[in-house]
């Protein structure tokens, strides 16, 4: 079971940069289309962070770095949405 967990962690770390890169255009399109699925993506990232803390993983800093950029990007779009509501 421990080997399975380690392998799953390795796969997750390999996928993470791709997920990170895809989030930026995805969030922009979500803003344009006025959809609301980015919270699910962020939940998965936070879940990965929690598992990293739980297992005392050394890759936690790597996940935190990606989450910081994702949060900053998301906050920018949230501000745009607030401004659009005020203008309406």
Helix/strand/pairing category: mainly alpha
Mean of all residue-level pLDDT scores? 81
By DSSP, the count of extended strands is: 0
Q: What summary fits the major beta sheet?
A: none
Instruction: Tell me the strand percentage band.
Output: under 5%
Indicate the percent of residues in helices.
over 70%
Number of helices: 3
CA-atom Rg in angstroms = 15 Å
State the shape.
elongated
For the record, give the distance between the C-alpha atoms at the N and C termini, rounded to a whole number: 54 Å
Order of helices and strands: HHH
Low confidence ranges: none
Task: Characterise the protein shown here.
This protein has 88 residues and is mostly helical. The protein has a domain at 24-83. Helix content is 88%, strand content 0%. The protein contains 3 helices and no strands. It has helices at residues 2-33, 38-54, 60-87. Helix 1 (2-33) runs parallel beside helix 3 and helix 2 runs antiparallel to helix 3. The model has no long low-confidence stretch (mean pLDDT 81).
């Amino acid at each position: 079971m421990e080997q399975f967990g380690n392998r799953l962690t390795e796969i997750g770390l390999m996928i993470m940069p791709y997920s990170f890169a895809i989030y930026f255009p995805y969030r922009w399109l979500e803003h344009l289309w006025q959809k609301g699925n980015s919270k699910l993506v962020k939940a998965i990232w936070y879940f990965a962070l929690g598992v990293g803390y739980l297992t005392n993983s050394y890759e936690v800093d790597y996940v935190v770095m990606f989450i910081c950029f994702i949060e900053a990007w998301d906050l920018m779009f949230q501000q745009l949405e607030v401004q659009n509501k005020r203008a309406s």
